[in-house]
User: Which sequence fits this backbone?
């Protein structure tokens, strides 16, 4: 396969210079209007490449289609999605990307003047990229590889298919979304307009990864009703909601907290506890990858509330639940070829393959729940959301190959 080094590098360097930071707490859609500068740039580039049916919506979602060049119409319409915003966690203004060619290992001086150094012992993943070319920041802003490394790879994939009409592919749908970093990435995404049967988000982590599992996620809210009287005359009368709340906390297993769990281990996470003798309020997250374990965790919380009601009287603890999302595994297991093809593409392109069980939600989890099965393929960036973010150009190049191979596999199996 031909190499994509220069195309993907040049695109990436252009994209990260555009400030497209999103903002939490904004009422507008997109959350910041500057994201539409990025959207317009991508829209115009898709059009100039020859992608069809290209448009940017009022809310900043960019759509485009590469029609099938197969003689049969049995190939799935495959969507590829990346987000164009960058996180508000670090400055995204005036990004000055530079390339360190043929990295030799050791510390990297990002900014001589300000003495900003990326220590190799603090960032052990650097070792994986010895001999490669790294795009770095000047140590004062984020890079924006999350997720512009994926945007650059998808755009270069599009360029490949449009300049190689002999390469077989089914219908390809391209989508670039704003506001992923502030949890609103799918809010205004029009699945019908997108037109894909199935899709992949391209986001997160080193190249070669894939994931189709997220947590099952629910929030418990407990209202605890106490009874306040003067402490001097409280004997056998007072019911202290603060103490009852404390008893509830003490019932939660200490080893099943976010800070004590990883991988596929679930947890309980009380994150709000406020109250007085008269009334206390607790919000507690419940998370698990396994549906049965997640249900068991919910039952345990119910048992704790029941126990406290037995001790202090019916109605003392009132429990309610808000579902946040379910693991997309439930949806993806109906379309197992999506994962088989992704694994095949990653392997055949020679990347180190790894599977991720996400300890949170993804845009793909939401889309899967809304009827568009949408696992994730990784994008090839490191140290996201901070000033030490970097992207190996070879990782982006590999990702272009993986995406092209993936789409080719769909055509072969049509
Ligand atoms: Zn991302």
Assistant:
């Amino acid at each position: 396969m031909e190499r994509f080094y220069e195309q993907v590098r040049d695109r990436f360097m252009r994209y990260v210079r555009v400030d497209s930071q999103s903002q939490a707490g904004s009422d507008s859609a997109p959350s910041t209007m500057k994201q539409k500068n990025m959207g317009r740039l991508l829209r115009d580039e898709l059009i100039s490449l020859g992608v069809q049916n290209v448009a940017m919506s009022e809310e900043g979602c960019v759509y485009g289609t590469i029609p099938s060049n197969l003689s049969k119409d049995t190939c799935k319409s495959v969507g590829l999605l990346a987000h164009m915003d960058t996180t508000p966690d670090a400055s995204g203004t005036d990004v000055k990307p530079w390339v360190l060619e043929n990295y030799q290992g050791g510390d990297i001086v990002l900014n001589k003047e300000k003495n900003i150094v990326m220590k190799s012992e603090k960032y052990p993943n650097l070792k994986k990229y010895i001999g490669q070319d790294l795009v770095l920041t000047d140590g004062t802003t984020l890079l924006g590889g999350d997720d512009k490394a994926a945007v650059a790879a998808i755009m270069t994939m599009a360029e490949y298919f449009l300049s190689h009409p002999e390469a077989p592919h089914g219908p390809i749908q391209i989508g670039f979304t704003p506001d992923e970093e502030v949890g609103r990435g799918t809010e205004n995404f029009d699945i019908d307009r997108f037109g894909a049967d199935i899709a992949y988000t391209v986001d997160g982590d080193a190249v070669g990864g894939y994931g189709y599992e997220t947590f099952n996620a629910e929030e418990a809210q407990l209202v605890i009703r106490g009874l306040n009287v003067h402490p001097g005359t409280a004997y056998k009368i007072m019911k202290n909601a603060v103490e009852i709340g404390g008893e509830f906390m003490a019932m939660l297993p200490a080893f099943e907290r976010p800070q004590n769990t990883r991988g596929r281990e679930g947890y309980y996470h009380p994150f709000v506890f406020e109250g007085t003798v008269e009334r206390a309020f607790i919000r507690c997250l419940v998370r698990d990858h396994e549906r049965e374990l997640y249900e068991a965790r919910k039952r345990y919380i119910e048992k704790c509330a029941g126990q406290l009601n037995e001790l202090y009287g019916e109605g003392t603890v009132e429990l309610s639940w808000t579902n946040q999302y379910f693991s997309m595994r439930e949806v993806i297991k109906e379309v197992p070829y999506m994962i088989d093809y992704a694994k095949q593409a990653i392997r055949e392109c020679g990347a180190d393959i790894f599977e991720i069980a996400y300890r949170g939600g993804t845009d793909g989890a939401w889309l899967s729940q809304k009827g568009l099965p949408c696992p994730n393929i990784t994008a090839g960036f490191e140290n996201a959301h901070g000033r030490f973010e970097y992207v190996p150009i070879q990782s982006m190049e590999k990702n272009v190959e993986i995406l092209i191979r993936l789409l080719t596999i769909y055509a072969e199996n049509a």
About this structure: The two ends are 22 Å apart (CA to CA). The chain has two domains: 5-213+328-412, 216-325. The longest helix spans residues 291-312. DSSP finds ten helices and 17 strands in the chain.
